[in-house]
Structures are given as C-alpha cells and as structure tokens.
C-alpha cells in the first residue's frame, strides 16, 4: 500500500495532527510524520514534496496554522493529492489558516478539510488509497456502518428520554 505523508508546519500543530495519525493507525495505513515548514524550511519542504511519489507516498496531508502556505507549497511541488488541515491559532480562530489553505489557484488543488479537521483528512486519505485496495475499502465501509449505528443508538436514547 502507498504511504501517507503527514506534514505539520510546527510541532505545536501536533495535538491536532494526532487525530489524523490515530485514524491512520486504526486503519493500518502506513504513514510518516514530519515537521516541515513552507516558511522556515522551504528547501526541505520542497525536496520532500518533489521526491514524495518516488519515495512511495500516495497522499500528502499538510497541517498548518496562521499564514498556512504549507499545503499550497506541497501542491506546487508535487502531483500527488494534497489534503490541507487549517490549524486554529490563538488569534483569528483558524480563519486565517482556512483561507490560506483553501483559496488555491486553478490547477493546483488542495482538498481542504475543516479547521482542525484532522480526522477527516485521514479518512479522506483512506478513501483515496481504498480506490485501489479492496481490503481497505471494506474496513472503511465497516467504519461508516459503525458510525451510523452509533447515531441510531443515540437517537433511540434521546427518543426514550423525551418520550411522553
Ligand atoms: C505555522 O505557524 C505552524 O503550522 C503553526 O500552526 C503556527 C505557529 O507555529 P509555532 O510558532 O508554534 O512554531 O507555520
């Protein structure tokens, strides 16, 4: 199976990023985690992006806050699918990172998830890799069925609490 690259702009993004790595572990998807910054380590970030396909990666997740150019920089240097996680910082509630990540020019897409939406970034990676992996696809279907069952159980509990 292809690997997922999980890149964060700073180790301060790790609490958010863990929500993605936990899910990748749960699905048995191989991944590597790096701190690479579009601004602070631009050469290392572009080198990683340029060699990612040859190094066995199939999807790249980039988490960054503030002027979050990391996912865009990866998209500029690599033709693999790039998923951007805008990370909430203490100043602008993450809207700065959301707009920096999502507003890519035509031709250089970044699939941007919600602010701090690391779990969905991992699930989107699973969906992409499952296109060519039936076993992973079955695990993902099972995950969704469990999610549905959980909500149905909550619905039953709420209904019984408010029953007249
Ligand atoms: C961004 O700046 C990082 O992704 C992080 O979210 C934010 C703050 O970084 P630190 O100052 O905490 O290293 O590049």
Task: Explain what this protein looks like in three dimensions.
The protein is an alpha/beta fold. Helices cover 49% and strands 17% of the residues. The chain is built from 6 helices and 5 strands. The protein has helices at 14-27, 42-51, 70-77, 95-102, 118-130, 134-161; strands spanning 3-8, 31-35, 57-65, 82-87, 111-112. It has a 5-stranded parallel sheet, with helices on both faces. Helix 4 links the parallel strand 4 (82-87) and strand 5. Helix 1 runs parallel beside helix 5 (118-130), helix 2 crosses helix 3 and helix 5 packs across helix 6. The longest helix has 28 residues, at 134-161. It starts with a strand and ends with a helix. Bound molecules: 5-O-phosphono-beta-D-ribofuranose. 5-O-phosphono-beta-D-ribofuranose (RP5) binds next to strand 3.
